[in-house]
Specification:
Helix content is about 40%, strand content about 35%. By secondary structure, it is of the alpha+beta class. Keywords: Membrane, Signal.
Amino acid sequence: MHVRSLSWAAVVAALTLASCTSAPSSSPVTSSTQGVTVVQTGQVTEVKDVTRHDGRSTGLGSFIGSILGGIAGSNIGSGTGSAVAGIGGAIAGGMAGQHAEQSNSSRNSTELTVRLDNGEARTFAVAPEDNFRVGETVRVSTNNGVVRVTR
C-alpha cells in the first residue's frame, strides 16, 4: 500500500510538471533581462541617400560674415566708393556666412524601405556606409523602442 501511494504521487507530480510547459511560440520574440526584442524579416525595396538640415540657425555665421565682409569692402577705394563697397561686402559676407553655417548643420543618411514578411512597408534611417541593396533580405530588431536593421 505504501508503494502505491508513492506511485500516485509520482504520477501527480509528472502531470503537474507537464502542464507547466507550453508549446513553443511561432512569433519571433526573444525575452531577456533588458526587455522584449521583436525580430522581423523583410526585403529591401528602396535605398535612398538623403541630406537633412536640422533647420537650426544661430545667425552667428551671418553676423560674422557681415562684419568681415564690411571691413574688407570698406578697404576698397575711398570716400563714397569705400562706403558702398563696405555695404556690398557686408551683404555678401552675411550671405556667405549663412551658407557656411547651414552646410555645417546638415547630415547625410540613407533611407531604407523594407517590406516586412507580414506585408507592412516601413522606412528606416541607416548610416550611409551600411551599403544595403534592393532585394536584400534583412532582419529588423526592435528592443525598447530602438530599431536596428541588419543583414
